[in-house]
Amino acid sequence: MSPVIDAHFHLWQVGRHGFEWPTPDLTAIYRDFAAADLRAAAGEALHGAVAVQSQPSDADTQWLLHLAESEPLILGVVGWTDMSAPDAAARVAELARHPKLKGLRPMLQGLPEDDWILRPDVAPALSAMQAAGLVFDALVFTRHLSAIDTVAQRYPDLRIVIDHAAKPPIATTQTQPEDTRDWTETMTVIARHPNVVCKLSGLFTEMRPDQPFDEAAPYVAHLLQTFGPQRLLFGSDWPVVRLKGEWRVWQDWLADQLNPLTPPERQAIFFTNAKRIYDLQGVP
Predict the structure, then answer these.
(1) What are phi and psi of 213, to 5 degrees?
(2) Consecutive H or E run containing 125
(3) Three-class SS state of 22
(4) Which among 101, 194, 248, 252 would be 20 to 30 A from 88, CA to CA?
């Protein structure tokens, strides 16, 4: 198989580096995960990966950056900082000086305000990210996308990546079709912004435990129709994907969904787009 860049994976150590999640009830992922575990899960096809913060903690980000200095598998890091802090702009600029820091993710899905990212005290951080060429990873649900639409308009040079396709309501696709319609319509709108791209990641964990994988297929098809192959990135969301399947199960299923595309289009999704969007240096 052609080489793959995984644009979204996590590492954590239980009880360390600001650890808050996963909780003990999530037995499949409640343990330490290291880069060697990802290598074992993915196999030889994995060329490299982007480590994404999993804790709203500066300690987590510093730990990931420290790992990236000596771990060749980690091509880049998407970190966290308090974007509403009075010194947020200076902090963003400081983080951007690290060669492996490629983006920031404020974990919007867990904040009490759906439009938190539009608060005036957050604006200096967004401006600093745009100036530094950092990527804004948006961890959101459908209800947050109107705010992301506004951010995309206000900061046209800010690269915005929608994580996990905004967590579509796959689990209720039959019982609450209106939720799927809302997601479909809102993603169509957000895709009109050329500075917004989307990760093909996290879909399996938005499904019921007994739900067939193929019920995610219409969502992938819609993302291909709206964003196109040049604005989609493969991400495993490993090890969270283990709640539903393994790295290779998700990658193989997605590759099958993308079979109708041309080889260059598939290569874009599985490799080239991550290299370009995250400005991954030294990747041949």
Answers:
(1) -55, -35
(2) helix 123-132
(3) coil
(4) 194
What value does the mean pLDDT of the chain take? 97
Domain boundaries, the chain: 4-277
Structure tokens at 56: 């709203």
- Taking only the tens place, the pLDDT of each residue in 122-172 is 999 999 999 999 999 999 999 999 999 999 999 999 999 999 999 999 999
CB 238 within 8 A of CB 9: yes
Q: How far from chain centre, in Å, is Cα 158? A: 16
Cα 48 to Cα 76: distance, rounded to the nearest angstrom: 9
pTM for the whole structure: 0.97
Question: What are the structure tokens assigned to 82, written together?
Answer: 């308090």
Note whether 86 and 76 are within 8 A (CB): no
Cβ-contact 189, 168 below 8 angstroms: no
Give the class (CATH, top level) of 4-277: alpha beta
Provide the residue type at 143 as one letter: R
Residue 126 and residue 117: Cα distance in Å, rounded?
Answer: 9
